[in-house]
Amino acid sequence: MSDLPVGLVFPGQGTQKQGMGEPWRETPSWALVARMSEAAGEDLEDLLLRTSAERLRRTDLAQLAVFTVSLVAHAEAERRGLLEPGPTACAGHSLGEYTALACAGVLTPLDAIALVAARGRAMRAAAEARPGAMYALVGAPFAEVEELTRQVRESVGDAWIANVNAPGQTVVSGSPEAMAGIAERSRSIGAKAFALQTGGAFHSPYMAPAIEELGMALQNAAFTGARFPVVANVDATVHADDGDWSGLAVRQLIAPVLWERCVGTLTGALGCRRLVEIGPGRTLAGLIRRIAPDVEVWSVDCPAALDALSGVRT
């Protein structure tokens, strides 16, 4: 790919959109979609080409869609030789961690998508059993968001930190009443609050009921040694051959995503000087520019972006 140490990053739920598979439909790597449909128990081609935007908001379908497009994009980048001699490390944001595990060889694509399907179903069921909401707070330091969240938890209801995404961007998760309280008080700490279009209070104790179903699915997955290190969401730590990925996957359901620290690990301890976001949207690229402005960032969200990336190879 280049003489720069390269890290790969993969997006999570929220980047899905109607027709998101169309740009990849004519690539040789699109053949993966048919193979993965059987393992997922879902017609992924229909999901990626013809499913409405409203239906794609459903948690289980959104996760399948984002994972599949990300994996197809990665496969196409590999097929074109754009990832040679190979990345230094990788990480994924929430759902994207499963893409990272598949691309690092920890899971086969079929095992990974079976887990994604089980995870999505379990999270959807947990959210239906106990409705929740999520808000992104933009513009306030993490410490102030953390303190506001604590105050609301003590005075209004369930509220937790769900994602520490970047300087000045933190996501909170919990009961609808508590989230409304945080949004109402967000101006007091200089933050703007944005409701996220999620199906529940993800990365919080509200997802505890999903642990059993995901745990059963994890028992059927074969984890192997990674071809290169993967940085885990829950501890922002490098995991390779010694990664307890079953345990990490379960913890990720109810623990915050430490994305800012994950990027810090990629660019710090692992020395990645170019980070390539592979999958739909460019959300992670925007966060990375805030976390590590001195690092080169590329997004691969369509085949044309692969053409652009080929032009920077040295």
TrEMBL record:
The keyword Acyltransferase applies. Its EC number is 2.3.1.39. Coiled coil: none annotated. GO terms for molecular function: [acyl-carrier-protein] S-malonyltransferase activity. Residues 9-314 form the Malonyl-CoA:ACP transacylase (MAT) domain. GO terms for cellular component: cytosol. This is Malonyl CoA-acyl carrier protein transacylase. GO terms for biological process: fatty acid biosynthetic process. Belongs to the fabD family. It comes from Streptomyces capoamus. The active site is at residues 94, 203. It catalyses: holo-[ACP] + malonyl-CoA = malonyl-[ACP] + CoA. InterPro entries: Ac_transferase_dom_sf, Acyl_transferase_dom, Acyl_Trfase/lysoPLipase, Mal-CoA-ACP_Trans/PKS_FabD, Malonyl_CoA-ACP_transAc, Malonyl_transacylase_ACP-bd. The keyword Transferase applies. Keywords: Acyltransferase, Transferase. It is an enzyme of class 2 (transferase).
